[in-house]
Amino acid sequence: MWRGPVAYTKVRGMTQETDTTHFGFRTVKAAEKASLVRGVFDSVAPRYDLMNDLMSGGIHRVWKDAFVDWLDPRPGRAYLDLAGGTGDIAFRILERSRRKVAEGVAPAHVTVCDINKEMLSVGRDRAIDRGIVSGLSWTCGDAEAVPLPDRSVDAYTIAFGLRNVTHIDAALAEARRVLKPGGRFLCLEFSKVVVPVLDQLYDLYSFKMLPIMGRYVARDEEAYRYLAESIRKFPPQEELLARMEAAGLGQVRYRNLSGGIAAMHSGRRL
């Protein structure tokens, strides 16, 4: 199994292997990152959707609509939404697919998988509030070890979750594993700003304003400092395309949103 970046240090004349990764701008042991990320989202889960609206001025809703538009959900298909705990993408997939339901065709089904139980709890409550009682299932699981069989879903979506994974390449390989032949991988994530001046303004906003908003709204300044740092550590657009191809996905491409503040990446299991 792919093990992520490996650093080597000398201990008393011997070489010792240390499996490390990043948690924001900090270097941590790879084995620790999942629990650190879990702690962040345990803390912010109750106010996660409110913070998304405040941080983006509501633009995240436009991005998610564009994301699901590009997916073009259809009835009768099985979807997996990874890191989708609060249900934002799953609800959109079900809504769009139900508009196209024809007689004799089963509606779509979405499995929401998230490593964080608190986020899943928020999503279930939101589904109940919306009266969504069918077409959804919820499971707690890791993007690097998806609890689904090989070739079991028609599409795999992940929105604002891939950058929190310890080993991105392992998660991409898992995405390919669970996709049926011809199945679609679609990722929405913060990316590299490609518009001059906007990149500087975005940095200022991310590192000055987000932690302050996190302190007063989500009551966790460090969580939103981590989120800002994690965006800068995520691979830029072309690098992510190359890593998707290395994981065995084909027909890879991407679309920038809002000057590259976010980007959508698409690929297929051929």
From TrEMBL:
Pathway the protein takes part in: Quinol/quinone metabolism; menaquinone biosynthesis; menaquinol from 1,4-dihydroxy-2-naphthoate: step 2/2; Cofactor biosynthesis; ubiquinone biosynthesis
Keywords of this entry: Menaquinone biosynthesis, Methyltransferase, S-adenosyl-L-methionine, Transferase, Ubiquinone biosynthesis
Leader peptide range in chain numbering: none
The keyword Nucleus is annotated on this UniProt entry: no
Top-rank lineage group of the source organism: Bacteria
The enzyme's E.C. designation: 2.1.1.163, 2.1.1.201
Enzyme class: transferase
Pfam family, one: Ubie_methyltran
Residue positions binding S-adenosyl-L-methionine: T86, D114, D142, A143
MF-aspect GO terms: 2-methoxy-6-polyprenyl-1,4-benzoquinol methyltransferase activity; demethylmenaquinone methyltransferase activity
Catalytic activity: a 2-demethylmenaquinol + S-adenosyl-L-methionine = a menaquinol + S-adenosyl-L-homocysteine + H(+); a 2-methoxy-6-(all-trans-polyprenyl)benzene-1,4-diol + S-adenosyl-L-methionine = a 5-methoxy-2-methyl-3-(all-trans-polyprenyl)benzene-1,4-diol + S-adenosyl-L-homocysteine + H(+)
Family annotation (InterPro entries): SAM-dependent_MTases_sf, UbiE/COQ5_MeTrFase, UbiE/COQ5_MeTrFase_CS
GO biological process: aerobic respiration; menaquinone biosynthetic process; methylation
Function of the molecule: Methyltransferase required for the conversion of demethylmenaquinol (DMKH2) to menaquinol (MKH2) and the conversion of 2-polyprenyl-6-methoxy-1,4-benzoquinol (DDMQH2) to 2-polyprenyl-3-methyl-6-methoxy-1,4-benzoquinol (DMQH2).
Stored HAMAP family: MenG_UbiE_methyltr
Family: Belongs to the class I-like SAM-binding methyltransferase superfamily. MenG/UbiE family.
Protein name per Swiss-Prot or TrEMBL: Ubiquinone/menaquinone biosynthesis C-methyltransferase UbiE
Gene: ubiE
